[in-house]
Each structure stands twice: as C-alpha cells, then as structure tokens.
Amino acid sequence: MPKVTKTRQQLRAEAREAAKLLVQTGRSKQAPRWDYALALISLAIGIVLVVAPPRTRVETFFWLLVMFVALVYPALHLVRTVLQARLKWIQAPAAIVVAATLASAIGYRVWPPIRRHTLNEKERALFEKPLSEQKEPREEIQLTCTQGDESVCVYAAQFVNIFREAGWKVRANHVEPVRMNNPTAGIILFKHGVGKLDPDNWRSGLWTALTASLIDVRKAFVNIGIEPESASNPELPEGVVSVYFGLEKEDESAPTNLTKTMEKLGKHWRGGPIPPSN
C-alpha cells in the first residue's frame, strides 16, 4: 500500500482540530458549582443556629454575618435564573436583599435575650432617665429579692444606688430577701391593693392604683430591655413601690400583663400628667 505523504498545511489543520477537540473535552467536565456549595454551607449554619443557638449576641451576629455573606452568591444565581437577561441593573441589589431577608429571618428566630448582668454606664443612664425626669412627690422604693438564691439578691443590690442617684428614697438602703407563698420569676412591681381577697374564690382580687411612680419605675426597667409585671399587696403601705426580683426568666423582655395594660392606656390616654398618689 503506497504511503500517503501529508503536506505541512494538512498537518497544521489536523493539529488545530486536535487542539479544538482537546479544549472541548476539557470544557465538558462540569466545573464545581459554588452556588450549590455556598447554599449548603448557609443551610448548615442556619440549622446549627436553630438547634444550638449561641448564648451571646456577639457570637450570634458573627454567624449570621457569615451566613449572609455565603448566601449572596447563591441568591445572585437564583435571581439571574428568574430574571435572565431582564433588569440586569437590579439583579445584584435583589440578591443582597434576598440574602439579608433569609439571614434576618433566622436571626429573629435565634436572637438571644438580654441576660441579667451588672449595668454599664449607658444602661444606668437609660434606667435613671425616667426616674430623674419625674417631679416630686416620688413614692418610696422598697427592693426585695427571692430568699434562697443569693445571685438574684446580688443582681438586685446594684439598683439601691441607681435609684438613690436618680433622687429616689430607698427603704433601709438595702435589698431585703423575702419568701413568697407563690414564688414568681421575673421582676414584679408591688403596690398597696384595695378590695377583698377570698382564698376560696379565684375571681376575687385586689385593685392597685396606677401611679406616676409606678409608671416611671416600669419605664426605667423597659429602657434596659426588661418588662416587669405588677401585683397587689394589701400589707404594703400607701406611697411605696416594692420592686421584687424573682428568679431570672428565660426572656425578661417578653410582654407581661402590665405591658398590655400600658398599651391599652396608651391608646385611650388623652395626655397630661398622671396624678400623684395621696
């Protein structure tokens, strides 16, 4: 069989075709999908945050930020798939909004409540603000804590000087440990109650005046992220607001019955000062 001699031009053409085939073969291998990988990482972070949420807000914010950054690229691919060639100018901002919305939804679910701690200068100023602004006559403050838990009394003790610095009188200038028949968690503002309490009738109860001092003491705690409850004590003299510190609740910013009462008052109150108690 005679040997076929190829020209240099033919050899170059064959080389070019072989190079094209090699390039196409390389491209046929699927590149790693970083959008899928980052989406899975974000999903894993979200699951961990929900199942085992961090205890501090700084740590929670850090992981939410990592989750947001990881979500931006998958969100951009999702937006481009939906919009394709339309509205190219809005695709990147829309992806950021989608990522921020998803991270915010997880953050709303896992954001840790404020735990009891020693107030810093900013928190002390926020607490004292409504107390300092109230004009006299101010009611006397009594501070009590649940008996048998020293950590609660230590937390409550810092408020002795805080109330005094705001110009309020604190009974005996110390926190008194007390034992309640029905122990309650959280912070409760007691006032003198009127009426008749029948132990055999669950509908019976005492009425308590909603005084300016009671409202301002509540505002002080709300300013530091705590929603106190209110209650009546027939043995408490008039002109005294007794602040009881019970065991710490899981979330002390959760609304209480006093919160609902103040919300109703805010809807129907026509303004003007609350008259002082006699």
Describe the structure.
- With 278 residues, the protein is α/β, with parallel strands linked by helices.
- The protein has 2 domains: 34-110, no CATH class; 121-195 and 205-268, no CATH class.
- The protein is 51% helix and 15% strand.
- The chain has 8 helices and 6 strands, in the order αααααβαβββαββα.
- The protein has helices at 8-28, 34-51, 57-83, 88-110, 121-133, 150-165, 212-222, 257-268, and strands at 140-146, 170-178, 187-196, 205-208, 229-233, 240-245.
- Strands 1, 2, 3, 4, 5 and 6 form a 6-stranded mixed β-sheet that branches.
- β3 (187-196) and β4 (205-208) form a beta hairpin.
- α2 packs antiparallel against α3.
- It starts with 7 loop residues before the first helix and ends in a 10-residue tail after the last helix.
- The model has no long low-confidence stretch (mean pLDDT 83).
| Shape call | elongated
Contiguous low-pLDDT stretches (5 residues minimum) are: none
Assign a percent range to the helix content: 40-55%
Give the termini distance in whole angstroms.
Answer: 127 Å
Biggest pleated sheet: 6 strands, mixed
* Overall radius of gyration: 33 Å
| Strand tally | 6
Q: Round the mean pLDDT to the nearest integer and report it.
A: 83
Q: Give the SSE string.
A: HHHHHEHEEEHEEH
DSSP summary: helix tally: 8
Any idea how many domains?
Answer: 2
Could you tell me the strand content as a percent range?
A: 5-15%
**Pairing-aware structural class of the strands and helices?**
alpha/beta
Entry keywords:
278 residues, 2 domains, six-stranded mixed beta sheet
